[in-house]
Amino acid sequence: MLENLVSGFGYAFQQHSLAALCAGTLIGYFIGAMPGLNPTLGISLLIPFTFGMKPIPAMILLSSLYMACEYGGAITAILINTPGTSAAAATALDGYPLTLQGKAGKALGISIISSGLGSFFSTLLLIAFAIPLARFALSFGGPEYFALALFGLSIVSSLASDSLIKGWSAAIMGLLFSCVGMDTINGVGRYTPHLYLLEGLPFIAVMIGLFAISEVFVLLEGRSGKGENFTGRVDALPTGAEMKSCGITVVRGTLIGFIVGIIPAAGANIASWVSYNDAKRRSRSPELFGNGALEGIAASESANNSAVSGALVPLLTLGIPGSSAAAVLIGALTIQGLQPGPLLFTRNPEIPYSIFAAFLLSAPLMTVFGLTCSKFFARVSSVPDEILAFCIFGVCVLGTYAIGNSMFHVWVSLGFGVLGYFMRKFGFPTAPMVLAIVLGPMAETNLRLALLMGGGNAGIFFSRPISLVIILVSLASFLSPIFKNIVHKKLSSREGQ
User: What residues have CB less than 8 Å from 198, skipping those under 6 apart?
Assistant: First the structure.
């Protein structure tokens, strides 16, 4: 293995490979930061440019773009409350409040350092544990996927810290929205008055509406919430003590993101929410989460970037994509005349190991570029609210239209923008709705598949060890915030006496 890795670095340090690495990183940054675009679309757009390239530079270009794209979404999530990628939605919960407090530089600094560390260490995990972990992921079936979705939904209890009723109301509404479209089991249309709805509500358009378009209305209303510390000047990067305080969170986020990323169809989206919930549950100051906690940013960003390495585990070792972007990478490998799977490591070891080397090199490159440019990025926060609102609106309309080259996506984002505005106005959190829309299809499909496997007997969820463990962890995750609130109220009443 060591010999192959050294050989991979030799390929990665060649002139064409280094040029591909730098180009992929820079393009990935800007695609990720553009609302409506995502790693899957970015890789798809660049595949035609790789037809005339050799296999190694081509794969380095696409894989480095994939990694950098997952970070790029944090830039707009932090600065204008507009997640560039769906995995950056959790980052916006604490990143944007920090921007309103005049601490955009600290938020961007923590996000890029966490992303870089998550990328680097998850690549080491990828190199060390790829093959055995891929075999473990194959043991997941309908019951395990449903249990995983249930665990994701249990996070709503933590996201709805102010009001559990409002939080779960938003989540239930999100689950209802996730039912729109073609039934994946029976093939029957549900709530589909228009043909465009047969594929369900376009998630990116929904997310842009709930986060970005609703923010446009808030800015135009003149209640952006910029704190007393906001001066329009760009603050310093995070201090050594602040970065150290997030160290354990980054380690846990990296492990969570890598493990979740390995599971096909889970991906960076779920990984960031699971890591965010874990960080909040373990924090000594959970009340800061959602109001500008650096740990929240570190948890989300380390997880969504490490999930990229995790998604490559089943891709390279078994030929099974761990995410939609990884599925496009399989197409890119096939175009180059390569077959992903176990034989790739024996017949063409230079391909996977040059990708490993590229990931190890792209992490510091991405970090240096991000830290160098973070102060320039942060200047966006000093733009007047009225101008910023119209700029956000224009970018959102263009990005949403680019999803399907259709005005339907734009109207969906506008509709959810209005809904998101009223939700924020009346104190209903939008994050639980987004989480439910993400996990709803996964939960429903795998619940029905599991019941078909068990002949209609729900005991199948408890007879399989992995699903049983995940369900028990989900129950604990769901109940822990409730118990904490009860204990906190009792302690407060005693102090009042």
Answer: 181, 182, 189, 192
Would you state the pLDDT for residue 297? 92
CA distance 494 to 147: 39
**Cα gap 386→381, rounded to integer Å:** 12
Retrieve residue 335's tokens: 């175009």
List the Cα angle 122/255/313 in 5-degree steps. 50
User: What Rg, from alpha-carbon coordinates, does the chain have?
Assistant: 22
CA pair distance 339, 350, nearest whole angstrom: 13
pLDDT at 229 (0 to 100):
46
Which pLDDT does position 381 carry in this prediction?
60
Taking CB atoms within 8 Å and a gap of at least 24, the contacts of 453-462 are 453/141, 453/142, 453/143, 454/143, 460/143, 461/143, 461/146, 461/147
Model confidence at 255: pLDDT above 90:
yes
- Dig out the tokens for 117 from the structure: 């560390």
Q: Mapping DSSP to helix (H, G, I), strand (E, B) and coil, where does residue 290 land? A: coil
Cβ-contact 293, 277 below 8 angstroms = no
| Helix residue ranges per DSSP H, 34-183 | 39-46, 55-80, 89-100, 104-137, 142-153, 156-159, 164-178
Cα 236 to Cα 228, 229, 371, distances in angstroms:
17, 13, 11
Query: Which token pair is 177?
Result: 């929205």
Amino acid present at 106:
K
Question: Considering only CA atoms, which of 292, 210, 206, 296 is closest in space to residue 253?
Answer: 296
Measuring CA to CA, how many Å separate 456 from each of 71, 112, 184, 441, 448? Answer: 43, 47, 18, 19, 9
* Cα 390–chain centre separation: 26
Q: Determine the longest span between alpha carbons in the chain, in angstroms.
A: 77
What DSSP assignment string belongs to 155-202?
Answer: THHHHT-S-HHHHHHHHHHHHHHHT-EE-TTT--EES-SSGGGGG-S-
Contact 484, 161 (CB under 8 A): no
Tens digits of residue pLDDT in 385-419: 778 788 878 878 887 887 678 888 889 989 999 99
Is residue 52 within 8 A of residue 336, CB to CB? The reply is no
- Provide the 10 A C-beta neighbour count for residue 130: 22
pLDDT, one tens digit per residue, over 52-61 is 788 888 888 9
Q: Of the candidates 89, 81, 94, 88, which has an alpha carbon nearest to the alpha carbon of residue 293?
A: 94
- Given a contact cutoff of 8 angstroms between Cβ atoms, the answer to whether 154 and 461 are in contact is no
State pTM to two decimals.
Answer: 0.73
Token duo for residue 83 = 């997640």
The DSSP bridge partners found for residue 181 are 190
Structure tokens at 390: 């119209």
Q: Per-domain residue ranges for the chain?
A: 2-496
Residue 302 has pLDDT above 80, yes or no: yes
Q: Which of 262, 281, 275, 263 is nearest to 303 (CA)?
A: 275
